[in-house]
Specification:
This protein has 210 residues and is α/β, with parallel strands linked by helices. It is built from six helices and eight strands. The strands form two sheets. It has a six-stranded mixed sheet with strand order 4-3-2-5-6-7, sandwiched between helices. Strand 2, helix 2 and strand 3 form a beta-alpha-beta unit. Helix 1 packs across helix 2. The chain is elongated, with a radius of gyration of 19 Å.
């Protein structure tokens, strides 16, 4: 098999994709907290905060971070785990459910590939909330129940191994084929990355004009 086709996204590309999705997220979900999945979700979360404000306070939306790894080789992980098991490397600290109660939480990542990471993040955060809800009087639980939604910059059009509840709002900035996505924060030589991205776009433009 040859080298898989690469698609290089620049910082400007990603910024503009996020800007294009922000209005729909604001009107349909109105988040008041972001949870960025590290490390790919950090930059998108910060950019999205530029376009969205907390709907009740009109202030910046707070960004919390969790660390999950599916493809990264970490100390103690086995070859069988790599690519098949989500490893938790960072969470929200003590009593995570307490800080989530009553919030409208948008979980953010750069790409929805297998969907395993997103499924894990949502399921585990929901567990944290449920544990906290059990400490409240039953009459207060519905009003304090956390609402979750998902935002990814890119959604790969492919069969997914993970699943999300059908009632969870899902926002994708762009739908893309199942290609290898090169993100600017992963590159060492950003000028070369941008040069190749421009070259790829020019080739694509010429091919569509033929």
């Amino acid at each position: 098999m040859g080298e898989p086709e690469h698609v290089r996204a620049t910082y400007n590309d990603i910024h503009n994709i996020i800007r294009g999705a922000a209005g729909k997220i604001a009107s349909e979900f109105k988040p008041d907290m972001f949870i960025a999945i590290g490390g790919g979700g950090f930059f998108p979360a910060r950019v999205l905060r530029t376009f969205l404000k907390d709907p009740s306070t009109k202030r910046n939306i707070p960004i919390q971070a969790i660390g999950l790894s599916l493809y990264e080789s970490l100390p103690g992980t086995t070859a069988e785990q790599l690519g098949s098991e989500v490893i938790r490397t960072q969470w929200l600290g003590p009593d995570p459910g307490k800080r989530l109660l009553g919030r409208r939480v948008l979980i953010i990542d750069e790409v929805d590939d297998s969907r395993k990471t997103l499924q894990y993040a949502l399921t585990e955060l929901q567990k944290d909330v449920e544990l906290e809800l059990q400490l409240l009087p039953e009459s207060e639980r519905d009003s304090k129940r956390t609402k979750f939604a998902i935002f990814v910059v890119h959604n790969k059009l492919k069969p997914k191994l993970g699943q999300l509840p059908p009632d969870t709002p899902y926002f994708a900035g762009a739908e893309v084929e199942d290609l290898w996505l090169d993100y600017p924060w992963e590159t060492i030589d950003i000028e070369e990355h941008d040069r190749l991205a421009k070259q790829d776009k020019e080739k694509k433009r010429k091919s569509t004009c033929v």
